[in-house]
Amino acid sequence: TDRLLAESDALMRANLGRRVDLATLARAAGLSRFHFAKRYKAVTGTSPIQRFIHLKIERACHLLDVTDAGVADVAAELGYDDPLYFSRVFRNVVGVSPRGYRMLRRG
Q1: Whether pTM exceeds 0.70
Q2: What are phi and psi of 57, to 5 degrees?
Q3: C-alpha span between 69 and 107 (Å, rounded)
Q4: Which among 48, 54, 66, 88 is most buried, taking Cβ atoms within 10 Å?
Q5: pLDDT in tens, the chain (107 residues)
Q6: Whole-number Cα distances in Å, 9 to 54, 64, 85, 103
Q7: 71 phi and psi angles, rounded to 5 deg
Q8: Under a CB-based contact definition with an 8 Å cutoff, are residues 80 and 48 in contact?
């Protein structure tokens, strides 16, 4: 199970700029989508897709902290075609918009 999580996590981290679906993660783990999702959630308490979203948002926070890239550029780097959708996902995870996050962090 530790190997399953480590490999899944590595695959997610290597593909932060792309879309990775449950089928891809399950195939890499050698399991059906159902069994992979069930096992992953049993071990981590969260779904694999939620984990992937959180990894993307962690990366977004890092980019907002250390670069002057615009929100649309950060969204594009993380595989989001629609900056508004990205902002909505970001707000759902972090609690503030990407712009609001950057303003809070930079004072």
Answers
A1: yes
A2: -70, -35
A3: 17
A4: 48
A5: 678 888 999 999 999 999 999 999 999 999 999 999 999 999 999 999 999 999 999 999 999 999 999 999 999 999 999 999 999 999 999 999 999 999 998 87
A6: 11, 22, 24, 30
A7: -60, -40
A8: no
Half-sphere exposure at residue 74, Cβ-oriented, CA atoms within 13 angstroms: 26
Residues written for the chain? 107
Of residues 30, 71, 33, the one with CA closest to residue 49: 33
Residue whose pair of structure tokens reads 């503030």 in the numeric block: 96
**Contacts made by residues 23-26, CB under 8 angstroms, sequence distance 24+:** 25/52
Amino acid (one-letter) located at 15: N
d(CA 52, CA 23): 13
| Look-up of token digits 């075609």 | 81
CA-based radius of gyration for the chain:
15
